[in-house]
Amino acid sequence: WSIEVPSLELHWSAAAKEIHEIDAGEIPTAAELVDYYVPEHRNRIRSAFFGCLGDGVPFDEELRLCTARGREAWVRTIGEAVRDASGTIIRVQGAIQDIHERKEVERLLATTLESIADAFFTLDRDWCFTYVNAHAERMMGRRRGDLLGRNIWEEFEGSAETIFYREYHRAVTENVSVIAEDTFPVGGTVFEA
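The structure corresponding to this sequence follows.
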């Protein structure tokens, strides 16, 4: 898709029209485009678009929309400004991708992980939390919002001296499964991982 500046004339690919479930010959206006998003996501797309249009700030958003046929779907929409030789923004262009299936899988996985009785969390390659279930929040005495994106070894003083540190690193280095039991520096609780 692209939107010309200053006319705000919208150009859509066949795939973008298919995602929105509109007829091939139909071309909505830029203003009507925002109305496809569910009410709670309209301000986000407006803010992202006008930030790109006015200041050239690129965007990458995952939002829900309601298609022309009334079906709700998750999409990823990205946009960037195109400037002329003098630096004036002449177009905002981007892409839209249907990610509904992926979001449904994520929702089902989160529901499953929240329903298990065990503490469960995931870490990325930098040892930062990427997921923390409610039981893990209680066991660690920390809210997931305070842990996500943070390094486990830095967040819990003394954790780098535990068997977990050694075994987690061995699991990554050797690409093997490990089982470890130790007292984690969270209230002196014994954990098995």
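The mean pLDDT is 91.
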